[in-house]
Amino acid sequence: MPGALSEFESRRRPVLEALAQRKLDALIVASAPNVRYLSGFTGSNGALLVWPGGTVLFTDPRYEIQAAQETDCRVKVARGALYPALMKFAAGKKLKNLGFEAGRVSYEAYEQLRIGLTLNASLTPVSGLVEIIRMVKSEAEIALIEQSVRLNSQAYEKAMRRARPGMSEFELAAEFEYQMRRLGAEKPSFEPVIAAGPRSALPHARPTSNRLGKNQLLLVDVGASREGYASDMTRMAFLGKPGPKVKRLYQAVLEAQLAALDAVRPGVRAEQVDRAARQVLRAAGLGAAFVHSTGHGLGLEIHEPPRIGKRDRTVLAAGMTITVEPGVYLEGFGGVRIEDTVVVTGSGCRILTPTSKELLLLPF
Q1: CATH assignment of the domain containing 294
Q2: What is the DSSP-derived secondary structure letter of residue 320?
Q3: pLDDT band for position 363 (50/70/90)?
Q4: How far is CA 203 from CA 307, 337, 338, in A?
Q5: Residue 2, pLDDT above cutoff 50
Q6: Does one domain contain both 169 and 205?
Q7: Domain check: are 122 and 145 in the same one?
Q8: Which distant-in-sequence residues (6+ apart) come within 8 Å of 136 by Cβ?
Q9: Looking at the structure, do residues 228 and 159 belong to the same domain, yes or no?
Q10: Is residue 2 a part of any domain in this protein?
Q11: Do 39 and 84 reside in the same domain of the chain?
Q12: Which residues pair with 234 in a beta bridge?
């Protein structure tokens, strides 16, 4: 359609509206995910200057060809540090009140920005301006996240077929990464969490040389990155025959997760979803064993707003992609967590994760 905005132009439009509301002349975008979101540039060294007169990507000579291929905005190649070049350009455009991403700029970078200020120009810290816009995904983004989710589940299923007693956590993590890359992922969206036995009580345990043993819980939290978009899933396995305590923990977490999923819909606050999971676990006598939030947003980053936590009052809207992942953790025994990636729809949510939630029993 003639005159239709590109995907990236449509993403930059609300940034310009936010600048006008905050009485800023321009925004300096420093974080790689935000640069990618607004321009399409995937290199490791880039910064954007966004203002009503246009958008310029600053990068270095290594990315000159790549930037021209990936982005729809003007590209300036700096022969030295990016920020002095950016500030010189801003001065030439007579931009005075410059916003910068307060949580994304290092002190060294801030000093480069400050030194580049001209007379009567100023720097204003802003937080979450682009991240808030990123919370609601476009149809194209949701499609990419769903591809990532399905790839992640396929890799999990292939890797778990290879799981066996005596295998180390390291080996199982490596098997997942191997299968994930074979299926077309760029990389894991985070370091796999593979934790067996009592170590499954560590919510973010890193894999170790510990070997899978008899009558152990096995927590597997894995994610893949596909065209920059993350997925996230946690499933549980047991080596041998689970006893009553394991079954009770698993059933309680499953019921909490289903209650939280049922609470996800437009107009609901994030804290209400968290509360739904927490109420189930509290009724089961496990409230104190739930030590993290119920979930988080994800997209170009594995952790994005909103946080599905006790005090997050963000109102959910159609197009948000979030995880729902309650868990319980008992020191010396083990932990249970069940996690899906979901997209908020017009009337509720759609679960993107296709993997069964059943406790996977591994023969021993």
Answers
A1: 3.90.230.10
A2: B
A3: confident
A4: 17, 8, 12
A5: no
A6: yes
A7: no
A8: 317, 318, 319, 320
A9: yes
A10: no
A11: yes
A12: 221, 339
Locate 161 and state its tokens.
């077929």
- Binned at pLDDT 50, 70 and 90, residue 271 comes out as very high
Q: How many domains is the chain built from?
A: 2
Domain-ending residue, one of 134, 163, 180 = 134
Q: Are residues 128 and 153 in the same domain?
A: no
Question: Exposure string (b/e) for 198-237, b if CB count within 10 Å is 16 or more?
Answer: bbbbebebebeebbbeeebbbbbbbbbbbebbbbbbbbbb
Domain membership flag for residue 351: yes
Please, are residues 97 and 121 in contact by the beta-carbon 8 Å criterion? yes
**Residue 1 has what pLDDT?**
40
- Classify residue 123 by its DSSP letter: E
Eight-class DSSP state of 306: E
> Cα 300–306–310 angle (5° rounding)?
145
1 is a domain residue: no
Residue 321 placed within a domain: yes
Cα(225)–Cα(336) distance, rounded to whole angstroms? 24
Q: How far apart are the first and last CA of the chain?
A: 61
Q: Same domain for 196 and 326?
A: yes
Domain that holds residue 102: 7-134
pTM value is 0.94
For residues 235 and 86, state if they share a domain.
Answer: no
Q: How many CB atoms lie within 10 A of CB 273?
A: 28
Share of the chain above pLDDT 90, in %: 96
Rg of the chain (C-alpha set): 23
Q: What Cα–Cα distance (Å) separates residue 341 from each residue in 70, 96, 155, 226?
A: 28, 42, 16, 15
Is the preceding omega at residue 306 within 30 degrees of 0, hence cis? yes
Max alpha carbon distance in the chain (Å)?
73
